Amino acid sequence: PRFLSGKPSPTGLAIHHTRLVGAVRDAIEKISGIDFLHRTRVTQVIRDDVGVINGVFCESPEAGETEVACRLLVAADGRLSKIRGLIGLEEQSQHLSYSVGVIAKGLRLGLPDHGHIFLGGWGPTLAYDIGCDEVRFVCDLPKDGPKGNDAIAECLRLHYAPILPPSIREGFIEGVRERPLEISANYFIWTPNCVVPGAILAGDAAGCGHPLTAAGMTNGLHAAEILRRLFARLREDGPVQALRTYARRRYEFVRTREILGDSLYEVFRAQDPGSRALRDGIFRYWRDKEANRTRSMRLLSADASGLATFLTEYVKVVGYSASGATFFAGAGTPFSTRALSILGVGRKSIEKIDLVA
Protein backbone atom coordinates (compact mmCIF):
# COMPACT_ATOMS: atom_id res chain seq x y z
CA PRO A 1 0.00 0.00 0.00
CA ARG A 2 1.06 3.56 -0.67
CA PHE A 3 -0.30 6.51 1.28
CA LEU A 4 -0.19 9.83 -0.56
CA SER A 5 -0.05 12.78 1.84
CA GLY A 6 -1.08 16.09 0.26
CA LYS A 7 -0.81 19.67 1.44
CA PRO A 8 -2.11 20.42 4.96
CA SER A 9 -5.53 22.03 5.19
CA PRO A 10 -5.38 25.84 4.97
CA THR A 11 -8.11 26.26 7.57
CA GLY A 12 -7.33 27.28 11.10
CA LEU A 13 -9.08 24.22 12.53
CA ALA A 14 -6.17 22.17 11.16
CA ILE A 15 -3.89 23.53 13.91
CA HIS A 16 -4.99 21.02 16.56
CA HIS A 17 -6.31 18.44 14.10
CA THR A 18 -2.73 18.12 12.81
CA ARG A 19 -1.67 16.69 16.18
CA LEU A 20 -3.93 13.70 15.65
CA VAL A 21 -3.11 13.35 11.94
CA GLY A 22 0.61 13.62 12.64
CA ALA A 23 0.43 10.83 15.22
CA VAL A 24 -1.42 8.58 12.76
CA ARG A 25 1.13 9.29 10.01
CA ASP A 26 4.01 8.52 12.36
CA ALA A 27 2.41 5.18 13.19
CA ILE A 28 1.77 4.32 9.52
CA GLU A 29 5.36 5.01 8.53
CA LYS A 30 6.59 2.45 11.05
CA ILE A 31 4.54 -0.37 9.47
CA SER A 32 6.57 -2.55 7.13
CA GLY A 33 5.30 -2.87 3.57
CA ILE A 34 3.89 0.66 3.38
CA ASP A 35 5.39 3.48 1.34
CA PHE A 36 4.35 6.89 2.67
CA LEU A 37 4.78 9.69 0.12
CA HIS A 38 4.92 13.10 1.79
CA ARG A 39 3.61 16.30 0.22
CA THR A 40 2.29 14.37 -2.76
CA ARG A 41 -0.96 15.08 -4.57
CA VAL A 42 -2.78 13.13 -7.26
CA THR A 43 -3.06 15.04 -10.53
CA GLN A 44 -4.60 12.43 -12.82
CA VAL A 45 -5.95 8.88 -12.72
CA ILE A 46 -4.87 6.17 -15.16
CA ARG A 47 -7.36 3.73 -16.70
CA ASP A 48 -6.77 0.54 -18.65
CA ASP A 49 -8.35 -0.34 -22.00
CA VAL A 50 -11.75 -1.16 -20.46
CA GLY A 51 -11.86 1.89 -18.19
CA VAL A 52 -10.75 0.36 -14.89
CA ILE A 53 -8.54 2.67 -12.79
CA ASN A 54 -5.16 1.01 -12.25
CA GLY A 55 -2.88 3.88 -11.28
CA VAL A 56 -2.39 7.60 -10.75
CA PHE A 57 -0.04 10.37 -11.73
CA CYS A 58 1.09 12.28 -8.67
CA GLU A 59 3.24 15.31 -8.08
CA SER A 60 5.56 16.40 -5.28
CA PRO A 61 8.15 19.19 -4.87
CA GLU A 62 10.93 16.65 -4.37
CA ALA A 63 10.19 14.05 -7.08
CA GLY A 64 8.15 16.07 -9.58
CA GLU A 65 5.56 14.00 -11.49
CA THR A 66 5.61 10.26 -10.94
CA GLU A 67 3.36 7.34 -11.83
CA VAL A 68 2.04 4.99 -9.14
CA ALA A 69 0.31 1.73 -10.11
CA CYS A 70 -2.49 0.38 -7.93
CA ARG A 71 -5.04 -2.42 -7.77
CA LEU A 72 -7.47 -0.21 -5.83
CA LEU A 73 -7.43 3.56 -5.36
CA VAL A 74 -8.96 4.67 -2.04
CA ALA A 75 -9.79 8.38 -2.18
CA ALA A 76 -9.85 9.59 1.42
CA ASP A 77 -8.87 13.19 0.73
CA GLY A 78 -11.61 14.95 2.68
CA ARG A 79 -14.86 16.76 1.96
CA LEU A 80 -13.24 18.95 -0.74
CA SER A 81 -11.90 15.83 -2.46
CA LYS A 82 -10.10 16.44 -5.73
CA ILE A 83 -9.96 12.74 -6.58
CA ARG A 84 -13.76 12.54 -6.41
CA GLY A 85 -13.95 14.68 -9.53
CA LEU A 86 -11.02 12.94 -11.23
CA ILE A 87 -12.72 9.54 -11.04
CA GLY A 88 -16.02 10.98 -12.28
CA LEU A 89 -18.21 10.82 -9.15
CA GLU A 90 -20.68 13.61 -8.41
CA GLU A 91 -21.76 15.20 -5.15
CA GLN A 92 -24.42 17.56 -3.84
CA SER A 93 -23.16 20.22 -1.48
CA GLN A 94 -24.87 22.62 0.94
CA HIS A 95 -23.00 25.24 2.95
CA LEU A 96 -24.44 25.02 6.48
CA SER A 97 -22.47 27.37 8.71
CA TYR A 98 -19.02 28.21 10.05
CA SER A 99 -17.26 26.66 13.02
CA VAL A 100 -15.09 29.00 15.08
CA GLY A 101 -12.64 27.32 17.44
CA VAL A 102 -11.40 28.99 20.64
CA ILE A 103 -8.69 27.56 22.89
CA ALA A 104 -9.01 28.50 26.58
CA LYS A 105 -6.19 27.74 29.00
CA GLY A 106 -6.41 27.10 32.73
CA LEU A 107 -9.91 25.60 32.51
CA ARG A 108 -11.57 22.29 33.28
CA LEU A 109 -15.11 21.38 32.33
CA GLY A 110 -17.68 20.05 34.77
CA LEU A 111 -17.70 16.44 33.53
CA PRO A 112 -14.26 15.03 32.62
CA ASP A 113 -14.11 12.90 29.45
CA HIS A 114 -17.46 14.27 28.23
CA GLY A 115 -18.34 16.62 25.44
CA HIS A 116 -20.43 19.61 26.53
CA ILE A 117 -23.01 21.35 24.30
CA PHE A 118 -24.29 24.82 25.22
CA LEU A 119 -27.39 26.23 23.52
CA GLY A 120 -28.62 29.80 23.28
CA GLY A 121 -26.46 31.33 20.56
CA TRP A 122 -27.41 31.27 16.88
CA GLY A 123 -26.00 27.77 16.79
CA PRO A 124 -24.73 25.32 19.41
CA THR A 125 -21.36 25.61 21.13
CA LEU A 126 -19.41 22.39 21.65
CA ALA A 127 -16.73 22.25 24.37
CA TYR A 128 -14.32 19.52 25.41
CA ASP A 129 -11.01 19.07 27.26
CA ILE A 130 -7.91 18.70 25.07
CA GLY A 131 -5.36 18.57 27.88
CA CYS A 132 -4.92 18.85 31.61
CA ASP A 133 -5.84 22.53 31.64
CA GLU A 134 -7.06 23.38 28.13
CA VAL A 135 -10.59 23.47 26.78
CA ARG A 136 -11.55 23.80 23.16
CA PHE A 137 -14.78 25.60 22.29
CA VAL A 138 -16.30 25.21 18.83
CA CYS A 139 -19.02 27.81 18.16
CA ASP A 140 -21.45 27.46 15.28
CA LEU A 141 -21.94 30.77 13.39
CA PRO A 142 -24.29 31.49 10.46
CA LYS A 143 -22.83 31.29 6.97
CA ASP A 144 -23.91 34.91 6.30
CA GLY A 145 -22.70 36.10 9.72
CA PRO A 146 -19.86 38.50 10.63
CA LYS A 147 -16.73 38.50 8.50
CA GLY A 148 -13.20 39.14 9.68
CA ASN A 149 -11.52 38.15 12.95
CA ASP A 150 -12.45 41.33 14.83
CA ALA A 151 -16.14 41.12 13.92
CA ILE A 152 -16.28 37.40 14.72
CA ALA A 153 -14.52 37.93 18.07
CA GLU A 154 -17.05 40.65 18.97
CA CYS A 155 -19.92 38.32 18.03
CA LEU A 156 -18.51 35.58 20.28
CA ARG A 157 -18.18 37.96 23.23
CA LEU A 158 -21.68 39.42 22.83
CA HIS A 159 -23.76 36.39 21.82
CA TYR A 160 -21.90 33.21 22.81
CA ALA A 161 -20.04 34.04 26.04
CA PRO A 162 -23.29 34.90 27.94
CA ILE A 163 -24.70 31.37 27.40
CA LEU A 164 -21.69 29.73 29.11
CA PRO A 165 -21.60 28.98 32.85
CA PRO A 166 -19.84 31.72 34.87
CA SER A 167 -17.07 29.29 35.88
CA ILE A 168 -15.75 29.07 32.30
CA ARG A 169 -17.07 32.30 30.75
CA GLU A 170 -14.06 34.51 31.54
CA GLY A 171 -11.65 31.84 30.29
CA PHE A 172 -13.57 31.71 27.01
CA ILE A 173 -13.44 35.50 26.64
CA GLU A 174 -9.71 35.48 27.38
CA GLY A 175 -9.18 32.78 24.74
CA VAL A 176 -11.06 34.89 22.18
CA ARG A 177 -8.92 37.89 23.05
CA GLU A 178 -5.49 36.28 23.43
CA ARG A 179 -5.28 33.47 20.86
CA PRO A 180 -5.96 33.13 17.11
CA LEU A 181 -9.45 32.01 16.17
CA GLU A 182 -9.78 28.80 14.17
CA ILE A 183 -12.37 29.15 11.39
CA SER A 184 -13.71 26.46 9.09
CA ALA A 185 -16.78 26.14 6.87
CA ASN A 186 -19.31 23.38 7.58
CA TYR A 187 -20.91 21.57 4.66
CA PHE A 188 -23.43 18.83 4.11
CA ILE A 189 -22.10 16.76 1.21
CA TRP A 190 -24.14 13.90 -0.20
CA THR A 191 -22.96 11.39 -2.82
CA PRO A 192 -25.28 9.07 -4.76
CA ASN A 193 -22.41 6.68 -5.50
CA CYS A 194 -19.00 6.05 -3.94
CA VAL A 195 -17.41 3.45 -6.25
CA VAL A 196 -16.16 3.19 -9.82
CA PRO A 197 -14.18 0.28 -11.31
CA GLY A 198 -10.82 0.35 -9.53
CA ALA A 199 -11.55 3.17 -7.05
CA ILE A 200 -13.68 4.02 -4.04
CA LEU A 201 -14.43 7.06 -1.89
CA ALA A 202 -13.93 6.82 1.88
CA GLY A 203 -14.36 9.15 4.83
CA ASP A 204 -15.57 12.70 4.21
CA ALA A 205 -14.75 12.37 0.50
CA ALA A 206 -17.79 10.08 0.24
CA GLY A 207 -20.04 12.52 2.10
CA CYS A 208 -20.19 14.41 5.37
CA GLY A 209 -22.44 16.50 7.59
CA HIS A 210 -22.16 19.00 10.40
CA PRO A 211 -19.31 18.05 12.77
CA LEU A 212 -21.51 18.44 15.87
CA THR A 213 -22.11 14.68 16.25
CA ALA A 214 -18.57 13.59 15.25
CA ALA A 215 -20.13 11.30 12.63
CA GLY A 216 -17.22 11.91 10.24
CA MET A 217 -14.73 9.93 12.32
CA THR A 218 -17.29 7.19 12.98
CA ASN A 219 -18.07 6.86 9.26
CA GLY A 220 -14.40 6.88 8.27
CA LEU A 221 -13.45 4.13 10.73
CA HIS A 222 -16.47 2.09 9.64
CA ALA A 223 -15.34 2.36 5.99
CA ALA A 224 -11.91 1.06 6.99
CA GLU A 225 -13.52 -1.89 8.76
CA ILE A 226 -15.63 -2.72 5.66
CA LEU A 227 -12.49 -2.62 3.50
CA ARG A 228 -10.62 -4.91 5.87
CA ARG A 229 -13.34 -7.53 5.61
CA LEU A 230 -13.64 -7.19 1.83
CA PHE A 231 -9.91 -7.59 1.28
CA ALA A 232 -10.08 -10.86 3.20
CA ARG A 233 -12.74 -12.12 0.74
CA LEU A 234 -11.43 -10.46 -2.42
CA ARG A 235 -10.32 -13.65 -4.15
CA GLU A 236 -13.62 -15.38 -3.44
CA ASP A 237 -15.97 -12.50 -4.30
CA GLY A 238 -13.97 -10.84 -7.08
CA PRO A 239 -13.25 -7.09 -7.40
CA VAL A 240 -16.57 -6.07 -8.95
CA GLN A 241 -18.72 -7.73 -6.29
CA ALA A 242 -16.40 -6.43 -3.55
CA LEU A 243 -16.89 -2.82 -4.67
CA ARG A 244 -20.67 -3.26 -4.84
CA THR A 245 -20.65 -4.72 -1.34
CA TYR A 246 -18.59 -1.80 -0.07
CA ALA A 247 -21.03 0.76 -1.48
CA ARG A 248 -24.10 -1.07 -0.15
CA ARG A 249 -22.70 -1.55 3.35
CA ARG A 250 -21.39 2.00 3.56
CA TYR A 251 -24.68 3.64 2.59
CA GLU A 252 -26.70 1.32 4.83
CA PHE A 253 -24.54 2.59 7.68
CA VAL A 254 -24.10 6.29 6.94
CA ARG A 255 -27.63 7.24 5.88
CA THR A 256 -28.89 6.85 9.45
CA ARG A 257 -26.11 9.05 10.79
CA GLU A 258 -26.70 11.66 8.06
CA ILE A 259 -30.37 11.99 9.02
CA LEU A 260 -29.65 11.86 12.75
CA GLY A 261 -26.95 14.53 12.49
CA ASP A 262 -29.22 16.75 10.41
CA SER A 263 -32.06 16.31 12.91
CA LEU A 264 -29.95 17.08 15.98
CA TYR A 265 -28.37 20.14 14.37
CA GLU A 266 -31.80 21.46 13.42
CA VAL A 267 -33.18 20.79 16.91
CA PHE A 268 -30.22 22.40 18.68
CA ARG A 269 -30.61 25.56 16.61
CA ALA A 270 -34.38 25.59 17.33
CA GLN A 271 -35.42 28.71 15.41
CA ASP A 272 -39.04 27.76 14.64
CA PRO A 273 -41.86 26.48 16.89
CA GLY A 274 -41.62 22.92 15.60
CA SER A 275 -37.87 22.66 16.19
CA ARG A 276 -38.19 24.25 19.64
CA ALA A 277 -40.88 21.72 20.57
CA LEU A 278 -38.66 18.88 19.33
CA ARG A 279 -35.72 20.27 21.32
CA ASP A 280 -37.82 20.34 24.50
CA GLY A 281 -39.10 16.87 23.69
CA ILE A 282 -35.68 15.33 23.20
CA PHE A 283 -34.46 16.85 26.48
CA ARG A 284 -37.52 15.43 28.29
CA TYR A 285 -36.86 12.09 26.59
CA TRP A 286 -33.22 12.06 27.77
CA ARG A 287 -34.03 13.19 31.30
CA ASP A 288 -36.86 10.68 31.72
CA LYS A 289 -34.83 7.44 31.64
CA GLU A 290 -31.22 6.37 31.41
CA ALA A 291 -32.28 3.78 28.81
CA ASN A 292 -33.45 6.60 26.52
CA ARG A 293 -30.07 8.31 26.71
CA THR A 294 -28.33 5.00 26.08
CA ARG A 295 -30.38 4.29 22.94
CA SER A 296 -29.62 7.73 21.52
CA MET A 297 -25.90 7.33 22.20
CA ARG A 298 -25.93 3.89 20.56
CA LEU A 299 -27.27 5.51 17.41
CA LEU A 300 -24.66 8.26 17.51
CA SER A 301 -21.77 5.91 18.22
CA ALA A 302 -22.98 3.36 15.62
CA ASP A 303 -23.53 0.53 18.10
CA ALA A 304 -27.08 0.52 16.73
CA SER A 305 -27.57 0.98 13.01
CA GLY A 306 -30.38 0.93 10.49
CA LEU A 307 -33.13 3.34 9.57
CA ALA A 308 -35.76 1.33 11.45
CA THR A 309 -33.90 1.97 14.71
CA PHE A 310 -33.68 5.68 13.94
CA LEU A 311 -37.40 5.86 13.10
CA THR A 312 -38.34 4.08 16.32
CA GLU A 313 -36.36 6.57 18.40
CA TYR A 314 -37.63 9.52 16.38
CA VAL A 315 -41.26 8.52 16.87
CA LYS A 316 -40.65 8.35 20.63
CA VAL A 317 -39.14 11.85 20.65
CA VAL A 318 -42.07 13.15 18.59
CA GLY A 319 -44.42 11.71 21.20
CA TYR A 320 -42.54 13.47 24.01
CA SER A 321 -42.54 16.69 21.97
CA ALA A 322 -46.25 16.64 21.18
CA SER A 323 -47.25 15.81 24.75
CA GLY A 324 -44.89 18.51 26.05
CA ALA A 325 -46.41 21.14 23.78
CA THR A 326 -49.89 20.01 24.83
CA PHE A 327 -49.59 19.33 28.56
CA PHE A 328 -46.26 20.69 29.80
CA ALA A 329 -46.11 24.15 28.25
CA GLY A 330 -45.59 26.97 30.71
CA ALA A 331 -48.56 28.44 32.51
CA GLY A 332 -50.30 31.05 30.44
CA THR A 333 -48.92 29.78 27.13
CA PRO A 334 -51.52 30.80 24.50
CA PHE A 335 -53.38 28.05 22.69
CA SER A 336 -52.19 29.45 19.36
CA THR A 337 -48.54 29.00 20.43
CA ARG A 338 -49.19 25.41 21.47
CA ALA A 339 -50.99 24.73 18.21
CA LEU A 340 -48.08 26.15 16.17
CA SER A 341 -45.67 23.94 18.11
CA ILE A 342 -47.74 20.80 17.51
CA LEU A 343 -48.18 21.60 13.80
CA GLY A 344 -44.46 22.28 13.56
CA VAL A 345 -43.64 18.92 15.12
CA GLY A 346 -45.94 17.28 12.57
CA ARG A 347 -44.24 19.01 9.66
CA LYS A 348 -40.76 18.10 10.93
CA SER A 349 -41.86 14.49 11.35
CA ILE A 350 -43.08 14.32 7.75
CA GLU A 351 -39.79 15.87 6.55
CA LYS A 352 -37.70 13.24 8.34
CA ILE A 353 -39.89 10.35 7.19
CA ASP A 354 -39.50 11.66 3.65
CA LEU A 355 -35.70 11.70 4.10
CA VAL A 356 -35.78 8.11 5.34
CA ALA A 357 -37.89 7.06 2.36
Characterise this structure.
With 357 residues, the protein is an alpha+beta fold. Helices cover 47% and strands 21% of the residues. The strands form 4 sheets. Strands 8-9-10-7-11 form a 5-stranded antiparallel β-sheet, covered by helices on one side. It has a 3-stranded antiparallel β-sheet with strand order 3-4-5, with no helix packed on it. The protein has a 3-stranded mixed β-sheet with strand order 6-13-12, covered by helices on one side. The longest helix is centred in the C-terminal third of the chain and has 31 residues, at 239-269. The radius of gyration is 23 Å and the shape is globular. The relative contact order is 0.09.
- Give the C-alpha Rg: 23 Å
Number of helices: 11
- The number of strands is 13
Termini separation = 39 Å
Q: Give the integer mean of the pLDDT values.
A: 84
Largest sheet: 5 strands, antiparallel
Q: Give the proportion of residues in helices.
A: 40-55%
Strand order of the largest sheet: 8-9-10-7-11
Low-confidence stretches: 8-16
Our estimate of the beta-strand percent is 15-25%
| Main structural class | alpha+beta
Shape annotation: globular
Order of helices and strands: EHEEEEEHEEEEHHEEEHHHHHHH
Provide a compact summary of the structure:
With about 350 residues, the chain is an alpha+beta fold.
List the helices and strands and how they pair.
Layout: E1 2-4, H1 14-29, E2 35-37, E3 41-47, E4 53-60, E5 64-69, E6 73-75, H2 83-86, E7 92-105, E8 116-118, E9 125-129, E10 134-142, H3 149-160, H4 166-178, E11 182-190, E12 195-196, E13 199-201, H5 215-232, H6 234-237, H7 239-269, H8 273-288, H9 290-301, H10 307-327, H11 335-356
Parallel strand pairs: 1-2, 6-13
Antiparallel strand pairs: 3-4, 4-5, 7-10, 7-11, 8-9, 9-10, 12-13
Helix pairs in contact: 5-7, 7-8, 8-9, 8-10, 8-11, 10-11
